[in-house]
Amino acid sequence: MKNATLSIFYALICITLFVSGCSKAALPTNEDNSITQPVTSTAPSSVETVTAEAPTPTSIPEPIPCTIAFDTDRDGNQEIYSMASDGSELVNLSNNPGADMDPSWSPDGNQIAFVSNRVNDLDGGQFIYIMDADGTNVRQLSLENESQWPDWSPDGFWITYENKGDIFKIKADGSGASINLTHSPEQDIQPAWSPDGKNIAWLSGNEGHWNIFLINQDGSDLRQLTADGRVTYVTWTIDGQIFTIWDNQEAHCFKCVMDADGSNVKEAGGKGELQQYLPFWTQEGERVECISGADIFSPDEEVYLVGEIFPDIFLNLTNNPARDQNPDWPANCLLNREPLAEEAPTSTPSGTSAANIVIGYAGDEPSQSQRRDAFEKACYELGIECVFGTLPELTDKGVSAVVQNSNDMVVRGLHQDILNARDKGIPVILLDAESITDGAFSVTVDHQRWMVTNLKWLLDVMGGKGEFAYFDLNPYRRYSNEITSILVQYPEVTIVDRRDGNYDSSKIKPEFSDFVRQYPEIKGIWTSYDNFQTILSLEENGFLVENWPKFVCDDSLDCLVKWKYLTQNNPGFETAAFGNPPGIAYDAVYVAYYLVTGAKIDESALAGPYGKSLYVDFPVVHNDNLQKWIEIMEENHFSQLDQFMTPEEIREKWFQD
Asked: Rounded to whole angstroms, how far apart are CA atoms 128 and 353?
């Protein structure tokens, strides 16, 4: 009964539960404190640097505790408190007779922006303030009365906020005037900065009818992402997607995630599942959710951690009869975690030295943070300097080699940049893409083999016969010709429907259900992309598991955990997952390192359509090793299946003796 009750309450309070600081509201005008002078900060450079030998590399700020700030009325008025990630070390930071709320940590954990109506030199009002992490050095930032909802840019240089129906930004050091970004006749609320600092999302409309809008951080390129007026909250996921509370009738989701252009809308999950998108790290390094809400175990609002590691799913951190809400924590505390479980190489390659080697990383994507983590892991092991920027920037900087994150579409536009790097003696190692351009090698999976392997697995578990449909949806790579040639080998398989070309993958879930209804005897459905939607579709539409068609699982932790649940309740359930490991970025650093220290690639190891690719194996998950892979992913905080070659394996497999 407890689990059923929790599910009911979870649905009732999801608007406040699944977001940090969701219940932000205007304050009554009251009193305030005196103001100290603002401190200064420095704008970031265009090329970000990591020196693995240093204890505090510049591209990864020094890990800081996941200290939580929240507001509470336990003292008779609204105050900003902080506490450790387990609820201990409670401190009143604001300690002022005015009303203080909406705390927002700076990314480095040194400062907190907040809203207050405390006494000031402007005859009162509600403004944005900043204080140091210990509550000292309070200074007023905004000058527009009725300001609220502050949010820091990822570099800590700007703060955005809402005021009287417009979105503003202002330098966090207070050195410049505020800038109105929207000037809209509509009401603009809830600004949120993207993890890469390039965009700001917010809600626009009027009470009860809100839509998501996006704008570049400089106020250019306004675009509208939703149009049905059913949105009530918006923020960004850790990997650069948009998370929103949205009563989406078409995608059938309420807690939704989507790409930054508004495409690929899908359900984000239930209790404990949102840690994939909006994570919080415990002191023990466990990845969970941090939320605020009422009616879970008590009628008053509390701050909770949510995850399966807790006996009752929810862990009440505040446990106080007051209203405790709007939890927030520094973005960089996500780096306060255990390193990936792999030993550093016992020695560097014979005759080599890490001195003066600089490896660049280009094409960084927030949605592929696990790939960047793998890159940085190799840099740390080798003790070499690593920098970040575009391929032209890194070439001009004179790095030793560049690892270029890419795909088969993007790489076509890199031809001249690769040649420019080659002419300066800088090798380029492409990730997940293959190019004919001299000067570049690719570290990637063999995508054709990957596709053939998982499609043949599906056709074989179908018994090699029956009705079949497929979604060939990958935005960077199409397989329709290969699918046709494989199906020739299975004459008893009948294609009843297909989706390829410029297909909207957000339609997978509803159309998957339509397939099953239209073809009740269908035996298998193959998708090249976003396979998790198939499980959600079948589950949410009430199809009996024993009647489900065969399909392939995503290589995501979400899909594997759902798969495990299905096997526990349906012992005959079977699927498989085939990974495209982000660890190729780790392998690529070692390839670059060996090249710049004089090693020669073994030409017999090169493969691919242009003879320039170094293929890695891809992990395969099946029922027998499912639990092992879930444990590996959870232990290493992987959201996607991953594996690494050892430095010795890379040298032995791909390089001459």
From this structure: 51
pLDDT at 39 (0 to 100): 30
- Residue 609 CB-half CA count within 13 A: 9
Once rounded to an integer, what is the mean pLDDT over residues 80-93? 94
Q: What does the alpha-carbon distance between residue 322 and residue 84 come to, in Å, rounded to a whole number?
A: 19
Residue 431 shares a structural domain with residue 475: no
Q: Are residues 415 and 532 in the same domain?
A: no
Q: Are 201 and 181 in contact (CB under 8 A)?
A: no
Residue-wise pLDDT for 315-349, tens only, equals 999 999 999 999 999 987 865 444 333 333 433 44
- Nearest-CA neighbor of 366 among 194, 510, 509, 503? 194
Mean pLDDT value of segment 522-535: 80
For residue 395, what pLDDT is reported? 95
- CA 527 to mean position of chain CA atoms: 23
For 443, the token pair is 């570290």
pLDDT of res. 22? 39
Is residue 633 in a domain? no
Q: Which helix (H) or strand (E) holds 557?
A: helix 557-569
Tell me if 636 is assigned to some domain.
no
Residues counted in the chain: 657
Output the six-digit token pair for 498.
């297909």
Domain shared by 229 and 313, yes or no? yes
Which helix (H) or strand (E) segment is 307 a member of? none
Cα angle 414, 530, 232 (rounded to 5 degrees) comes to: 100
Cβ atoms < 10 Å from Cβ of 220: 8
Let me know whether 215 and 227 are in one domain. yes
Quick: pLDDT tens for 620-638.
Answer: 999 999 999 999 998 888 8
What is the tally of structural domains in the chain?
3
Give residue 367's domain range: 358-445+581-617+641-654
Residues 471 and 601 in one domain: no
Q: Please give the model's pTM, rounded to 2 decimal places.
A: 0.50
CA distance 393 to 46: 9
- Residue 273 has phi, psi (to 5 degrees) of -85, -20
Cα dihedral 588, 594, 596, 601, rounded to 10, equals -90
Pairwise CA distance, residues 654 & 637, whole Å: 29
Better pLDDT: 572 or 328 = 328
The pLDDT-based confidence of 650 (bands split at 50, 70, 90) is: very high
Q: HSE, CB side, 13 Å, CA atoms: give it for residue 534.
A: 24
The span from the CA of 333 to the CA of 282, in Å, is 10
Percent of the chain residues past pLDDT 70, beyond the cut: 84
